[in-house]
Design brief:
With 360 residues, the protein is an alpha/beta fold. It folds into 2 domains: 226 residues, Spore Coat Polysaccharide Biosynthesis Protein SpsA, Chain A; 120 residues, no CATH class. 51% of the residues lie in helices and 11% in strands. The chain is built from 11 helices and 9 strands. The strands form 2 sheets. Strands 3-2-1-4-7-5-8 form a 7-stranded mixed β-sheet, with helices on both faces. Helix 1 links the parallel strand 1 and strand 2. The longest helix has 29 residues.
């Protein structure tokens, strides 16, 4: 006997040139959900003005079933931004995101929904947990996909515990995310959700990713570029490093300038360090940790704590400059640079876990 589900469910499907798949997919989703006793669902198709007539098919179906809704975008394209649009229009508490090409089996929707009802904010259909897998991929494509997930796990805070953090098939509790905070790029909307939110309750269930039923893949040479840019946009360590690099220029530039005009190496070093601390704080506050909206401390308190957290790095930098200059005979600017490199890791850990700590 099929278990009956509660039916507070939206299904969001971004499309572009999917006329050969969309009618059958909507029919299968309807059949599967109704078979589980779920009749009050909605399906939202966001079509990027497909020239093949996808939207006309969906429009015709929506006239027969008001649970099917169509949004046609004419001024914007992209899977991730289409999903964001669908999330905005979803009226139910839980939203399934999936592709239209049958690579994401609709039979899995009830399992995703049932798991979410156990109290999870996000449930991911995963290719890379026990029981999951892919069909018809070359070893190179599989390696590239797993490498991408590993990179994301290392560099994106919210993605570290998710094996398939770039899955395109998942369910999310709408109330657990802030849609306006999402700034997706390319295909990886899940990575955006994970990277912009902290403390989400996440689970993964296995599935087999299959070859598309009909039509052509949308993956192109731009996919890798989009992925790398996206990882940078949601990766606090990478942005912290970029800000740190700008601080190096501030630090060494001011130090060199003061040395040039005869200021002592000790005062030049300390002035360069302080200037870079202030510069780094402002950029980290407005750029690196911008997504942490509910910060525990106010601006002045963060500035004070940043000075304290940076003191480890500052002392390391200053002492390294003195020691390498006195005992190795190298130029003070080079000694200062060596000290900066040694202090970076401690500075990031203290900044992320103390200065820009979010409210619990």
């Amino acid at each position: 006997m099929t278990e009956k589900l509660a039916c507070d469910l939206s299904v969001v499907i971004p499309t572009y040139n999917e006329k050969d798949n969309i009618k059958l997919l909507l029919s299968r989703i309807t059949e599967i959900l109704e078979g589980h006793g779920c009749k009050g669902f909605e399906i939202i198709v966001i079509d990027d003005n497909s020239p093949d007539g996808t939207s006309e098919i969906v429009k015709e179906l929506s006239l027969k079933d008001n649970r099917i809704k169509l949004i046609v975008r004419t001024n914007e394209r992209g899977l991730a931004t289409a999903v964001k649009e669908g999330l905005k229009h979803a009226t139910k508490s839980y939203v399934v995101v999936m592709d239209a090409d049958f690579q994401h089996p609709p039979e899995l929707i009830p399992r995703l929904y049932q798991k979410a009802l156990e109290g999870y904010d996000v449930v991911v259909a995963s290719r890379y947990v026990l029981g999951g897998g892919v069909e018809g991929w070359s070893n190179i494509r599989l390696l590239a996909s797993k490498a991408g997930c590993l990179i994301a796990r290392m560099l994106v805070r919210g993605a570290r515990e998710v094996r398939d953090n770039m899955s395109g098939y998942f369910i999310v509790r709408k109330s657990s995310i802030d849609i306006e905070r999402l700034n997706p790029r390319g295909y990886k909307i899940l990575l955006e959700i994970l990277g912009r939110h902290n403390n989400l309750r996440i689970s993964e269930i296995p599935y087999i990713f299959r070859n598309r039923r009909a039509g052509k893949s949308k993956i192109s040479t731009n996919t890798l570029v989009d992925f790398l840019i996206h990882v940078f946009n949601v990766s606090e360590p990478l942005k912290f490093a970029a800000v740190g690099a700008s601080g190096v220029l501030v630090n060494l530039g001011i130090m060199w300038f003061l040395l040039y005009y005869g200021v002592s190496k000790e005062l030049s070093s300390l002035t360069g360090i302080e200037a870079s601390i202030i510069s780094n704080f402002i950029l980290n506050d407005k750029f690196t940790f911008q997504a942490r909206e509910e910060k525990k401390y106010g601006f002045l308190a963060r500035l004070m704590f940043y000075h304290l957290s940076s003191s480890v790095s500052a002392i390391t930098t200053f002492l390294t400059m003195l020691l390498t200059t006195e005992y190795l005979g190298i130029h003070p600017v080079l000694g200062q640079f060596t000290g900066i490199l040694l202090g970076f890791t401690a500075n990031y850990l203290l900044s992320s876990r103390v200065v820009w700590l979010e409210k619990p």
